[in-house]
Amino acid sequence: MVTGTKGAQDNRTGGRVTTFSFGDYVVSAAVNGRLFAVGLGDGTVRLIDSETLDAEPVTVNAHKGAALCLSADADKGAFLSGGDDGRLVRLAPVGAVEVLAETKGCWVEHVTAHAGSGFRAYASGKDVFVLGKKGAEPRKLSHPTSVGGIAINPKGRRLAVSHYNGVSLWWLATKDSVPASLQWQGSHLQVAWSPDGDYVLTAMQENALHGWRLSDGEHMRMTGYDTKVRSMTFTRRGHFLATGGAARVICWPFTGGGPMGKAPQEFGGAGGPPVTAVVANPLHDVIAAGFEDGTIVLGQPGPGGSALVMKANGNPITSLCWNPDGDKLLAGTENGDVHVADFRPI
């Protein structure tokens, strides 16, 4: 149900906020062109047209259980969704559902795609399956333990797969290749590439990050978090890695050789609830951050402070997503509310 435009909030951004109430946990959010998509715990995916926020979102019955992961598809306007029903589905811009794969007895927990190279990949248990050209058999990539996260590098050529004791790097276009191994003891979950493709970062099961610089094999370890890091994002030019997991947004510098031996910069928060989601703007040097108490702020690394987008309402932020123009921010929450802040001049 669309609850309607709430108008200007008491904030310093001047953003107008439209709120949709979907009634179930927002697991993930993605954007492809003008369309936002949010995957919910009830198995539906809701498609929201960022250009017509007064319109009713399209409801897609994607899964017979919970939606577990969501990604923009390689094709414009489409999305990929995985669920605990073992299905990987492709959602067309009009809401049509195409089943791309089914796994028996296993969840589809991670999915990603690259528009430039056209590769799609999804993870189920210990295996990752790479989908290339339509009609071709999926390529199966097996790992020693369950997959914690997957990510395709900026050029669309390599796939990083995190798991226990490290990360495996696969060449996507080379069949029967042996992966390069990035090793570090412990359980590695979410994985990310730097915009220049030289750094691979993982969020650990413990309250820490680990990273590797591929050009020389240098390790980096980032600690001191209050909770597990569930969200991280590189700024648009790769100068900083912004992360959740603490009462303020922790931003590690990635210029001049990376973060080794350097203190992070911070913004937002004041010793209260932790940051649960972060996302960098695609066009501007600004980062959006959501907190466990429902607060949403915009800021930059350093002492400049932050601007309030939404006040605390007790409803934790689970996901954040910018549109390609960087003037609309979507925020999903634990109770199923989805807020879209529009920063365009009235």
List the helices and strands and how they pair.
Blueprint: E1 2-8, E2 16-21, E3 26-32, E4 35-40, E5 44-49, E6 58-61, E7 67-72, E8 79-83, E9 87-91, E10 97-102, E11 110-113, E12 120-124, E13 127-131, E14 139-142, E15 149-152, E16 158-171, E17 180-193, E18 199-204, E19 209-213, E20 218-222, E21 232-234, E22 240-243, E23 249-253, E24 265-267, E25 275-280, E26 287-291, E27 296-299, E28 306-310, E29 317-322, E30 328-333, E31 337-342
Antiparallel strand pairs: 1-2, 2-31, 3-4, 4-5, 5-6, 7-8, 8-9, 9-10, 11-12, 12-13, 13-14, 15-16, 16-17, 17-18, 18-19, 19-20, 21-22, 22-23, 23-24, 25-26, 26-27, 27-28, 29-30, 30-31
What can be said about this structure in brief?
The protein has 346 residues and is an all-beta fold. 0% of the residues lie in helices and 51% in strands.
Uncertain regions: pLDDT < 50 for 5+ in a row? 1-11
Broad shape: globular
Helix content: under 10%
User: Structural class of the secondary elements?
Assistant: mainly beta
Instruction: Tally the helices.
Output: 0
Overall average pLDDT: 93
Beta strands, count: 31
Amino- and carboxy-terminal Cα gap:
25 Å
Beta-strand percentage?
Answer: over 45%
The major pleated sheet works out as: 6 strands, antiparallel
Largest sheet: spatial strand order: 15-16-17-18-19-20
Rg over C-alpha atoms, rounded to the nearest angstrom: 19 Å
